[in-house]
Write a structure and sequence with these properties.
The protein is of the alpha/beta class and about 300 residues long. The chain has twelve helices and 13 strands. The two termini are about 45 Å apart.
Length: about 300
């Protein structure tokens, strides 16, 4: 079966991307492409390369701009309107598919699907990738962070504030949310397509690799401040640094904190009008944002650069 049928205008030398593309029609429970989309949206990563499913015009466009491999794009009737815009970005190897509104709604995870989805293969970063790039290494290490929204927010913030990469690790039996799940990708606005992200890395092995590479390990503590813990602005974050962010409830284990080169504890104000009360610790994404901003501030100051204020 051909990849796509072009309308008659395309046969006169007019670009199909500007005058219309007719994708293959797919339907039925046994269709191999629909099976792949269904499995990918359910979080079952393929063994032969790890294709994941994304949904929504913005994410599909981000994937195409990032030049990661795209296996297929699936649209329903509403989603066909996006084809003219993304047509110029499509490689000839991309399978272009269409299905009914009912089947698409059953596949997609969002409550109001935009009618376009894709099977993509994000780049899995190596340890060397995490330290690469033009600047001084700044790696964010997620240790047992389970909420996809938190993971996605950290990825987006890490990219925006100049981190060199993000690594996802387990905390004993607590795994970090899959960094390439559709929920994380949506929360990150596609950040995982554009800069180094590694997952399923052993924390002890990662700690050893950091020490060999001369990267200081900084633990973000959610426990009662210890005598040796520092506020973010009291910690030198200008050199090669790995910031460890722990689980939403338990934080980092005391053993992990004590093994770090330094411990950071974010000071919190006391609630007004409630003597003796304490503010709950910041969630993982907010804590990571505070630390990344402080690292960016210190590095810009050291380089004699004033960051221009900008909208998010």
């Amino acid at each position: 079966m051909p990849r796509a049928h072009l309308d008659s205008s395309s046969q006169t030398g007019i670009s199909a991307s500007t005058r219309g593309i007719q994708p293959e029609w797919v339907t039925g429970k046994e269709n191999s492409w629909l099976k792949r989309f269904r499995a990918a949206f359910a979080g079952r990563v393929e063994k032969d390369g790890g294709a994941i499913a994304i949904e929504g015009a913005r994410l599909v466009e981000e994937a195409l701009r990032s030049a990661i491999p795209v296996d297929a794009i699936l649209v329903n009737e509403i989603g066909r309107k996006h084809l003219a815009r993304i047509g110029p970005m499509l490689a000839s190897s991309v399978r272009l598919l269409a299905t009914s509104d009912r089947i698409f709604a059953h596949l997609a995870e969002t409550e109001t699907p935009q009618g376009i989805a894709a099977l993509v293969r994000p780049r899995r970063a190596s340890f060397d990738d995490l330290l690469g790039g033009p600047g001084t290494p700044l790696v964010v290490v997620l240790v047992g962070i389970q909420d996809p929204g938190n993971v996605g927010t950290i990825l987006r913030t890490a990219e925006a504030l100049g981190a060199s990469g993000v690594a996802a690790c387990k905390a004993d039996s607590l795994g970090t949310a899959h960094v390439f799940s559709s929920k994380v990708i949506r929360a990150s606005a596609g950040a995982g397509f554009r800069f180094p992200v590694a997952e399923a890395i052993s924390l002890p092995i990662l700690q050893t690799q950091f020490r060999v590479a001369g990267v200081r390990i900084i633990a973000a503590s959610s426990h009662v401040p210890a005598a040796d813990s520092l506020a973010p602005w009291q910690t030198d974050l200008r050199g090669p640094v790995a910031l460890l962010i722990g689980n939403e409830g338990a934080g980092l284990s005391l053993d992990v904190e004590r093994a770090a080169d330094a411990r950071i504890c974010i000071p919190l104000a006391e609630p007004r009008g409630i003597p003796g009360a304490k503010v709950e610790s910041l969630n993982a994404a907010m804590a990571a944002t505070v630390l990344l901003y402080e690292a960016a501030r210190q590095r810009a100051e050291a380089a004699g650069i004033k960051r221009e204020a900008g909208a998010g």
